[in-house]
């Protein structure tokens, strides 16, 4: 695992739609954000993570699902989209070659492991789960996963200190 990032985006939204802006002021995802590499993404407001997710899809595809979900299969999308009008989105990606499982599907297990460690560390440090976290998958972690999670959580603590 070789975690790179974060790439930071501003997201302005209504419950039905969203508009992203990258650090260069462009209204789109580009580069690794459009790839099928494993990605960890965190929505935050004022430096406080609201939702931690992992995906092997492009970020535009993942966000589209989170904004259009209507409860099919029990998934209602990103809960925060019904409150407020703007969040920050930070995305890290694994630059190592994509792992493929025995069934031929792409594996995001390292990223999902870091996702769980980030959520756990946020709970440990703040006393609460991220406000809109709806699920988490747990895997056995190693020192690399935990160190990556520590670096990511420290990033948000630095953001809050700067504000």
Q: What is the general shape?
A: globular
Low-confidence stretches: none
Count of distinct strands: 7
Strand order of the largest sheet: 2-1-5-3-4
Order of helices and strands: EEEEHEEEHH
In which range does the helix fraction lie?
25-40%
Class by SSE composition: alpha+beta
Cα Rg:
15 Å
Instruction: Quote the distance from N terminus to C terminus.
Output: 31 Å
Summarize the structure.
Strands 2-1-5-3-4 form a five-stranded antiparallel beta sheet, sandwiched between helices. Helix content is 29%, strand content 27%. The protein has 163 residues and is of the alpha+beta class.
List the helices and strands and how they pair.
Elements: E1 3-13, E2 18-22, E3 39-45, E4 48-55, H1 59-68, E5 86-94, E6 99-100, E7 106-107, H2 109-126, H3 143-162
Helix pairs in contact: 2-3
Characterize the structure shown.
- There is one protein chain.
- The protein has 163 residues and is an alpha+beta fold.
- It is 29% helix and 27% strand.
- The protein contains 3 helices and 7 strands; from the N terminus they run E-E-E-E-H-E-E-E-H-H.
- The strands form 2 sheets. It has a 5-stranded antiparallel sheet with strand order 2-1-5-3-4, with helices on both faces. A two-stranded antiparallel sheet has the order 6-7.
- A hairpin with a 2-residue loop joins strand 3 and strand 4 (48-55).
- Helix 2 (109-126) packs across helix 3.
- It is globular.
- The N and C termini lie far apart (31 Å).
């Amino acid at each position: 695992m070789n975690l790179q990032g974060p790439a930071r985006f501003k997201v302005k939204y209504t419950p039905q739609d969203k508009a992203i802006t990258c650090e260069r002021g462009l209204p789109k995802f580009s580069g690794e954000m459009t790839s099928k590499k494993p990605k960890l993404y965190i929505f935050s407001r004022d430096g406080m993570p609201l939702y931690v997710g992992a995906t092997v899809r492009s970020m535009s595809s993942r966000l589209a699902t989170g904004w259009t979900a209507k409860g099919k299969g029990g998934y209602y999308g990103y809960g925060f989209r019904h409150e407020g009008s703007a969040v920050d989105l930070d995305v890290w990606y694994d630059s190592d070659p994509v792992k493929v499982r025995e069934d031929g599907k792409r594996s995001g297990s390292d990223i999902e492991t870091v996702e769980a460690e980030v959520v756990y560390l946020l709970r440990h440090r703040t006393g609460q789960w991220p406000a809109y976290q709806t699920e988490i998958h747990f895997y056995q972690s190693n020192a690399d996963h935990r160190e990556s999670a520590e670096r990511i959580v420290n990033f948000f603590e630095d953001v809050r200190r700067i504000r």
